């Protein structure tokens, strides 16, 4: 299977497995491009897709970057990657997608021991940082940089509270709003299910960093 054939089954599987989840595609995290970030209540999940035509050439770098940004990390593979477990840490999960079959959670992920809240704060737009400031009755810091505001929030708020509010902002992100610092908005759609309203990938939620599909 190629990458684009794996994504639709993956998104359907994530909806069923995690319930309330929002997905963001093609997000640059340091030296890597995360194929999919999943936002749940209080956690950021990372999904690196390795189609049957992909290699492990860049996987070491990708692992380092995913580990910094994601609370839980998964590799999503086709049937050709039977030895993928040998190439990833034992706390990474494995999802297998094969043609004509339901995706399978071959190995559940454990918490990443290397994730840092300071890196996750980089995922937020400046307007979202201001939302958190306002929510906690902190100064607006209108003329300050994103890094300054992030550092202040990390200093002032309990880590558990800040992580929850960070994921709240990412889950509620409105891509129809223009943010000068963070790029063009992208419209997203909602699908109501029996478990509530889930943000889906139609049309895809891309960031301004969208680039052509890489190998490996």
Overall structural class, as computed from helix and strand content, comes to: alpha/beta
State the end-to-end distance. Answer: 14 Å
Uncertain segments of ≥5 residues (pLDDT<50)?
Answer: 184-216
Strand content: 15-25%
Overall pLDDT score: 84
SSE series: HEEEHEEEHHHHEE
**Residues in helices, as a percent range:** 25-40%
Biggest beta-sheet profile? 6 strands, mixed
Supply the number of helical segments. Answer: 6
Q: Can you count the beta strands?
A: 8
How are strands sequenced across the largest beta sheet? Answer: 1-2-3-4-5-6
Indicate the radius of gyration in whole angstroms: 17 Å
- Identify the quaternary structure here: single chain
Overall, the morphology is elongated
């Amino acid at each position: 299977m190629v990458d684009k054939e794996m994504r639709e089954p993956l998104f359907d599987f994530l909806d069923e497995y995690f319930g309330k989840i929002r997905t963001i595609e093609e997000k640059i995290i340091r030296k890597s491009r995360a194929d999919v970030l999943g936002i749940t209540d209080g956690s950021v999940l990372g999904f690196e897709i390795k189609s049957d035509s992909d290699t492990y050439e860049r996987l070491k770098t990708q692992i380092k970057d995913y580990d910094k940004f994601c609370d839980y990390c998964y590799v999503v593979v086709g049937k050709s990657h039977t030895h993928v477990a040998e190439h990833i840490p034992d706390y990474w999960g494995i999802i297998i997608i094969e043609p004509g079959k339901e995706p399978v959670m071959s190995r559940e992920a454990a918490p990443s021991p290397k994730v840092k809240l300071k890196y996750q704060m980089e995922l937020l737009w400046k307007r979202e940082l201001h939302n958190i400031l306002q929510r906690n009755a902190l100064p607006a810091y209108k003329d300050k940089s994103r890094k300054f505001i992030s550092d202040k929030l990390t200093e002032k708020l309990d880590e558990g509270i800040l992580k929850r509010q960070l994921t709240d902002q990412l889950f509620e992100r409105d891509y129809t709003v223009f943010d000068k610092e963070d790029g063009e908005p992208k419209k997203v759609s909602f699908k109501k299910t029996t478990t509530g309203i889930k943000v889906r990938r139609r049309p895809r939620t891309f960031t301004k960093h969208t680039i052509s599909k890489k190998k490996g």
